Amino acid sequence: MILITGATGFVGRVLLRQLIREGRAVACLLRPSSQERRLPQGAFRVATGTLQDLPALRVAMQGVDTVIHLAGAWRAEGAYETEWLNHQGTVNVVEAALDADVKRIIYLSHIHADRNSAYPILRGKGAAEEAIRSSGLTYTVLRSSLIFGPHDHFTTVLAMLIKFMPVIFPVPGDGKTRFQPVYIEDIARCLAGCLDAYHLENVTLSVGGPQHLSYNEILSAVMEAINVHRVHLHLRMPLIRTLVGLSHSLFPNPPVSQEQLDLFAIDNTTDLGNIPRNFDFEPQRFTGNLDYLGRKGWRRALLRYAFRRESQ
Description:
Layout: E1 2-5, H1 10-21, E2 26-30, E3 45-48, H2 54-60, E4 66-69, H3 82-99, E5 104-110, H4 120-133, E6 138-144, E7 147-148, H5 155-164, E8 168-172, E9 178-179, E10 182-183, H6 184-194, E11 203-207, E12 213-214, H7 215-225, E13 231-235, H8 237-250, H9 258-261, H10 274-279, H11 298-306
Parallel strand pairs: 1-2, 1-4, 2-3, 4-5, 5-6, 6-11, 7-10, 8-13
Antiparallel strand pairs: 9-12
Helix pairs in contact: 1-6, 2-3, 3-4, 5-11
């Protein structure tokens, strides 16, 4: 039995569908407030609980031999900071897994995760990785670059913001920070592939798509996909942070968090050959695979997104 944490999230839903197709026995950890209808159709077990609820985690782990740990945070949630959510939540998962005699954990992290990082997201995920590596569980840590695909929080948010802003579009710094966007279906294939990949036991591996792209190039590709043009207005990071801070005072669910801005401080790239070498398939390119953005109503979608109160 495989337990997925974060099963209703962007990656979790696609991974669950992948594992059901493969005929795997799967359980999903859902928050009490989660919408189970967000999950794909298929046979799977549901357990209710949160990463902060250790007794519920122990119950969810019963009969489980592998945990795929996807649940995490890209922004603060109530009284919990991103660093705490990513680190302590993982510590709780590890403790529950050990109590339930789980054999293996597969963790989706981020490129450049490091407990000594200056940035909360990377610091929290780095500390989470260390908790996993020192646990005694067999592990695979899969570090990804930005993940794109239908209903993502990356290209979809960019499309909404680009459509909403006339003529110009603000860009953090010089826009030359490099990313290696990886398609959602490819990440799901990699996570599922880890289950039978003995060469990836007790390994930390960074993965990304087949292109290194600057943020400027990513913006241009998204603009082309939604058939609009905006002039890139390069602004210093302190001013961008001020604008994002203003959005936090205006909207319950602002499109961009301060923590996400940290990702512009360092290139999010790795070896282009890591997926073909380790999983024996060629990942999809970013440019030319954004057809899902060809919809209308992006401005309305932004307002719905910004005023939505998340309950996951």
